[in-house]
Inverse folding.
């Protein structure tokens, strides 16, 4: 039984040259056959490595990415603004509660002052009687 060879046969530089010439002739033929507007797409295809990806698809993808980012930013901004408005209302409610407590305490202090004055008068009158 023969063993398969582990060596790879690499193409000659002569064959590589032939492929380069054929590729160049194909490009030249495309230039002669295609109109001037198509030249731009051929050049772009060459620049992208021949993957077939054109600028229109790239622009569309960039536009989708831009609008997606824009919508996401708007949603996050809306959430932050809503949270700030919620905090403002909460703070306002707390301030209202504190101010109502202060008013009630002020009334209590005034009542205590009146009671203190009444007690002092009563004590002064009782001393005078003695």
């Amino acid at each position: 039984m023969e063993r398969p060879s582990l060596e790879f046969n690499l193409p000659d530089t002569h064959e590589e040259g032939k492929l380069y010439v054929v590729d160049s002739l194909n490009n030249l033929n495309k230039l002669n056959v295609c109109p001037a507007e198509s030249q731009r797409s051929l050049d772009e295809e060459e620049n992208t490595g021949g993957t077939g990806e054109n600028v229109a698809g790239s622009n569309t993808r960039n536009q989708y990415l831009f609008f997606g980012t824009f919508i996401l930013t708007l949603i996050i901004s809306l959430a932050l603004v809503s949270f700030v408005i919620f905090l403002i209302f909460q703070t306002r409610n707390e301030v209202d509660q504190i101010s109502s407590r202060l008013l009630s305490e002020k009334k209590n202090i005034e009542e205590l002052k009146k009671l203190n004055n009444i007690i002092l008068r009563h004590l002064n009158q009782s001393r005078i009687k003695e």
